[in-house]
Amino acid sequence: MIGQFDTVSGAHFAFTDRWGGVSAVPYEELNLGGAVGDDPDTVRTNRELAAKSLGLDPELVVWMNQVHGADVAVVDGPWGAADIPSVDALVTARRGLALAVLTADCTPVLLADPVAGIAGAAHAGRPGMVAGVVPAVVRAMTELGADPARILARTGPAVCGRCYEVPADMRADVAAVEPAAYAETSWGTPAVDVTAGAHAQLDRLGVRDREQSPVCTRESGDHFSYRRDRTTGRLASYVWLD
Asked: What contacts 90, CB < 8 A, 6 or more positions away?
């Protein structure tokens, strides 16, 4: 199943779960990650199935080699497999070009300014959120003409602060950069809430139209979770503009 959310302004956001693909255990079924040990042909088939279910041309979906950093690539079209950059955010001014983020607990951040025709997508794991990938992608969008006051922001399924247990010193280091990410697990140990941190950063940047998925990937058997399963597939989140 893929949840698609369309706006009257022509912005489209979509988030996959793990079902409806052709991958075998332990990647069943709709694994969209190409670097987790799954068969490459199977992943290619899954990506085609997902794109077509959204009404997208699979060749017009842009992927990243995600590295938990804060670098942003501006794209105006698909690139060859050998040219995919190692970045954690994408920005485009090309309508109809879909930007994709792979996750299995990290927070996918999807952004769109329909008036300016600018879309952005970021992979915000704990290191990337701390490094500033969210401000970086918004800055790249504004440089192309987007206005933070017009940007629509949607964050997808991710591990919640009640489940993302970390050592106390790690929580302190993260909270020193982004206080909103300070959290505690449901069992009373130190934790980090990456999604809360990303939303706080968006708010300070002037992005007010924000929505957050209620799904915690670690708690949901319908979603891939690295923290729960270790060897597992990857979800994808997509953003594009008409």
From this structure: 62, 64, 72, 73, 74, 75, 99, 120, 121, 122, 137
- Tell me which residue range forms the domain holding 139: 2-241
pLDDT confidence of residue 81? 75
What is the model's pLDDT at position 43? 98
Q: Residue 180 is encoded by which pair of tokens?
A: 């909103």
Total number of domains in the chain: 1
Q: Work out the number of other CB atoms within 10 angstroms of the CB of residue 13.
A: 25
Tell me: the pLDDT tens digits for 42-97?
Answer: 999 999 999 999 999 999 999 999 999 999 999 999 988 778 999 999 999 999 99
Entry field: residues in the chain: 242
- Residues near 203 by beta carbon (within 8 Å), at least 6 away in sequence: 210
